[in-house]
Amino acid sequence: MAAPTLPAGAVLQPRKGTGFRQFKSAFATVAIVGAFVAAAVPLVALVYYVAREGLKVFSWEFLTTDLPFSQRSVEGGIYPAIIGTLIITVGATLIAVPLGVMGGIYLNEYGARSRFAAIVRFLSEILTGVPSIVMGLFIYTFWVLPRGADGFSALAGSLALGALMLPVVIRTSEEMLKLVPHELREGSLALGSRKSRTIRTVVLPHAAPGIVSGSLLAVARAAGETAPLLFVIGATNLVNWDWLSGSNTALSVQIFGNAASPFVPAQERAFGAAVTLILIVFLATAIARIVTVVYTRRVSGAA
Amino acid sequence: MPPAATAGDTITRVDLTPTQVRPPEVPADPGPVPGREVVFDLSTVEIFYGEARAVTDVDLDIARNEISAFIGPSGCGKTTVLRSLNRMHDLTPGARVAGTITYHGEDLYGPKVDAAEVRRRIGMVFQKPNPFPKSIFDNIAYGPRINGVRKRSELEGIVEQALTRAALWGEVKEKLKSSALSLSGGQAQRLCIARALAVDPDVLLMDEPCSALDPIATARIEDLMEELKETLTIVIVTHNMQQAARVSDRTAFYTAEADDNGRRVGKLVEYDATATIFTKPSDPRTEGYITGRFG
Amino acid sequence: MGGAGFPRPAPPSQNRGTVTQTLDPAPPSPLVGGPRPPGFAVDRAFRVLAVLAGLFVLVVLVSIVFVLFDSAREWISFEGLGSLFSLDWEPVNEKFGAGSLALMTLIVAALALVIAVPISVGIALFVTEIAPRRARLPIVFVIDLLAAIPSVVFGLWMLRQLSQPLADVYADVHGAVAGVPVLGDLLGSPSASGLSIMTAAIVVGIMITPIVTAITREVFATCPLAQKEASLALGATRWEMIRGAIFPHSRSGVVAAVIIGFGRAVGETIAVALVIGASQRLTGNLLAPGDTLASIIANQFGEASGVQRSALIGFGLVLLLLTIIIGIVARSVLRRANRRFGVV
């Protein structure tokens, strides 16, 4: 059968209806780009607006003066809140990271096939989805209430934030440990090294950059949390360096308390605190990224 | 130190025509003396991964200061048997070793035996060089440190000796602090050998140690094995027949066959002096393999 | 020499005799009872510690459920199981029904998804299909920044910058659809301050975009190049290729992303508390103020006591159970997707 003959020049001409299809595709492309813009715009707007309002009060004095007693006062700074956020967050990190790394070690190094480990992994995943305010209620009922008047403290806040951070650190640790090549473990064990030593001296160092980076991201998120702290740290307008006892305050809590205030000075303090908080969070996130980039290159060594 | 490979050496040592049907060089050594001291004695050994039998019918003994080679096509169990000699299967959940494996007369899998001590005495070098992401010094010193050696001077002595035995000292003595990951493939493998030697083992198990290396690096490691066998016992798994013929005193040939259920199981076919295996093998399957008819 | 004991630097080999000479006739020390590498006890202890760490997670989760349930009992027995979810929350009149709060929580979350999902899918498509390779990193960076901003700052921004302008927009929209049957009720008389269900949904939508985008992006990225190229090779336009190759492959993964986003939206507390207007009366008017399970706890717990306090803890329990269920559902969807397509 002879091949069908085509009219001259017909091969590369667009078929009927192609124009509309191309239009649909172009329209979709515009919509997709628009989606990205839709996400970028709030970010830019937020950062700009918060920075603009916050920088009105931002100063060294602002950062180092105690909170005023009355909300409508123009005087005062957020120093206690900065210290509070730092103490509470560092405390939470000290609680959550060792426990979380050990949990990750258990899941990946000891529990590869165990039923119990599968349950723990599952529960840890569930725990990541628990709303932070529920964690606050838990610590309030479990820790603060039984202690009566002395219940509020930075420690209670650290417990609440630590409980939030724990499942994230466990998951990060497990993922990073999984990435360590099995030959490294075998090489160490074949020399007569016991499992725990192998983990401590060969496996963990290899996974360390990733674990540190993941933990820093968890810390950044914890620093910004408000809900879990609302009912467990109490309130104060003076600096409290005591982690174990006495009411404390935090940047996030201050922002929440002052945001809806009708008094302009309070609102300004809220913005100043917001700028400070964003700086801290961005700093922690940036360090996490730098750790990943710098140390991942180092571990892989020269080509 | 092994002599640098000269052009003449390289040509005779490296056989680049693997399908050539001709018996490889018969070593001048007539084979080990009877009354040899047995290091490993395996009898009716079978190894399982869960329910699946990976290898069966393993009966052999490995003598001191000899190089024994395990050869055979892929998937026939040679690496599985090798790894049972230093209890690496303990690490695989569901793996089980049936039968008896004795080491200098003692049951290797006895209830009171410490697997870590087993692995200290029976070292292993892996197919792909796996240096730790530490300095060269710390790689070698890792084993001794595990065993309690703390003094810097002692460690330095051990490191130098191990690197010398592994024919690597001259190349790295100026850069002991640099990362082990910066070494070439052949150097890294010699580093792994030095690392294994640093704990003063009795046996060295080598799982296809040269398969990731170029021919010149391979030749250096084969020279090394000749030297090391004077003080150690070596068992090597290799898929390169010519290598087995070049370096080993005894050779074990494995193959994989279908069992009664139709599943492929590895089994030991023949184990004899290397010269015999390569010139007058008893089993037709062995002959088939070494003449290139399969595998 | 060789294996007889440790540590003992062995002298370098000097005997280069024939192979058959054994150099050290003495047998090595026995395996059992001989020297062993130290650290046996430490090894055991370490293992125990690791198992305990795993156990701890179990303990925490179980404790949370128990403690909250225990504190909520007062509320449960006061209201009675039947009317736990009644639509009336009026502590003044001793009415502690969770119903209206629960419904409004779901409404806000659903609305937030309506806003977030198209945007997230769009961004994910943008990153995987349209943006040139070099632009990907800055875009991902922008999304990560969005994820890093604390909820309270979002609330602050929304409240102080946008609530008033939004109030005006709502007024216009309401004016435009006033008579229309369903739409007119949904977009009914707006709150003067702009604090409303809609405002809360907008801010939550923005906040859950990063996580939904991240998961969706991963799902799109695992679409096999072969399928995409096959589609294009048949003459499909880019959009047709997306619809024909990427979407079918990614269906379950995107569903999982939506479910996870829903879970986050349900739990969002602080930003909602700042902009939703704190009215517990159930309403279908999205432009009117409302309240959610989470935000009412944030706003009222401090001053609450007695049954009200117990009820708020009960709300926390409801939230916990909700997020557990959502988590389980998301996990099983992801598992099924994994099984079908390999890595999601």
Explain the overall architecture.
The complex is a heterotrimer of chains A (303), B (295) and C (344). With 303 residues, chain A is mainly alpha-helical. Chain A has 10 helices and no strands. Chain A has one domain: MetI-like fold, CATH 1.10.3720.10. Chain B has a single domain, classed as Rossmann fold. A two-stranded antiparallel sheet of chain C has the order 1-2. In chain C, a hairpin with a 4-residue loop joins strand 1 (89-90) and strand 2. The chains are: A mainly alpha (303), B alpha/beta (295), C mainly alpha (344). Chains A and C meet through helix 1, helix 3, helix 4, helix 5 and helix 6 of A and helix 1, helix 2, helix 3, helix 4 and helix 6 of C.
Fold blueprint:
The complex is a heterotrimer of chains A (303), B (295) and C (344).
Chain A: H1 18-55, H2 60-64, H3 79-110, H4 115-128, H5 132-144, H6 154-178, H7 182-189, H8 195-223, H9 251-259, H10 264-300
Helix pairs in contact in A: 1-10, 3-6, 3-8, 3-9, 4-6, 5-6, 6-8, 7-8, 8-10, 9-10
Chain B: H1 7-13, E1 38-49, E2 52-63, E3 67-71, H2 78-84, E4 95-103, E5 106-107, H3 115-121, E6 122-125, H4 136-146, H5 152-165, H6 169-172, H7 185-197, E7 203-207, H8 215-228, E8 233-237, H9 241-247, E9 250-258, E10 264-273, H10 274-279, H11 284-290
Parallel strand pairs in B: 2-10, 3-8, 3-9, 6-7, 7-8
Antiparallel strand pairs in B: 1-2, 1-4, 4-5, 9-10
Helix pairs in contact in B: 4-5, 4-7, 5-7
Chain C: H1 40-79, E1 89-90, E2 95-96, H2 99-130, H3 133-148, H4 151-177, H5 181-186, H6 197-221, H7 225-233, H8 238-267, H9 270-275, H10 293-300, H11 306-341
Antiparallel strand pairs in C: 1-2
